Model the fold of this input.
Amino acid sequence: MRQDLISILGGVNTRGWKKVKVDFTGGPLVISVPPDCTELTMKKAGILKNPAKEIQRAIDQPCGGPTLEEIIRGKGKETGQLRVAITISDITRPVPYQGKKGILLPLLKKLQALGVPRENILIIVGTGTHRSSTPKEKLEMLSKEIVSGYKIQDHDCEDSSILVSVGKTPTGTQVFLNKFFHEADVKIATGLTESHFMAGASGGRKAVCPGLVDLRTIQKFHSPDFLESPWATNLVFDGNPCHEESLAVAKAVGVDFTMTVTLDKDMRMTGVFAGDLEKVLEEAVKKIKTYVAIPVKAEFDIVLTHGGYVGRNHYQTAKAAVGALPAVKENGVIILAADNRDTEPVGGAEYKTLTHLLKLQGADRYVELLRSPAWKFTKDQWEPEVWGKVLRKVGEEGLIYCTPDIPEEVFTTLPGASGYEFLTPAGKKKARAKKVQEMVQNAVFYFYRAYKEKDISPRVAFIREGPYAVPVKGAYGSP
Done:
């Protein structure tokens, strides 16, 4: 706890303050904010009234490409001999795969209705550099019916025995792909299209790269040359090297059919799109732009946000911090409520080592090390680089990371300041959600008072949807 915390808390006049609700497991967190706090919130998105009907329509009437029937007929083989590979997202993405209102079962039934035997269908979890899915996670993602009835395997970007070269991209990247996906007669990519802090938007081509490629290919996709581009950000596609590389890899692989969904802030389906790889992305992005982009006229001194569903661990929560950058002033404050409920709340071993290196060296020096000819590409090196973008704008003291799931002593190796610094002795005894609520609330009080002591009336904002909302300044490109 900060030595001056108690005295500062006693000096904050909260008369007239209002309350906001921050999404959190076991919550929501109820936080008092100044009466003039601006709530940056997504526009209301119309949800699908009959998701099952729309899913079937999307499968039967694809946009910009042939139907599954036409694809299968065009393969020149007996349908019963065709091998189909379907790549899916892992547990870090809230893709509605399960049940009659999910996208996977109707797709599987369609393939079987067209004559593809169940045993010829392989489901591949596109992990990229993420860890493999646990049996429990597969059940959570897919349901017992699919897990028990179909072949499912996780991709491994470091297992050379399951990787095969499929050529080069225009930038010269030698692409190595999951051989089971490559050898399939019919290749199908599925997932979720939402804003993405590097590639503009997720979905489609990202299911292949980085989802199904090897560490060498990901090395280029996550290189400083790409990530340091000003165009490698949310909802930007023109000139975005991450988007362009991912698309080039997917096109080289030859995805036959793509299926993606769009969701609102409550994870309800707002759209479902299937068909041609590029056309599906175009239509899905057009949809999400209508409600996720939030114009920001002027930056704020203090920005409150949260990690959302995707922020299962520290590694994934970078999305929320980077997403808040357009809203916060230089040397301002980001207060982040992180629901790090994953079995490993920080991330993998490589990530832990690299975040410590970032902490020791600072953002600019860290990137210099990555660019050095002597540096050996290391899995997960890109995520600390992304945290570095946050540190460059608000500094170590301006990023307040509030979670009850990471031990206090571990924060000496993580970027930013620990929420434990804003937890009173009594707060340490509270339940999980109440504990992080006190961290966030006291951080708001602390920095509000700090600005007031400088004769500044701080402008405060709350990003209601956390990593799913996209504060934007200026224009953004089209896919």
Q: What stands out?
A: The CA atoms of residues 236 and 475 lie 9 Å apart. The two ends are 47 Å apart (CA to CA). Confidence is low (pLDDT under 50) at residues 475-479.
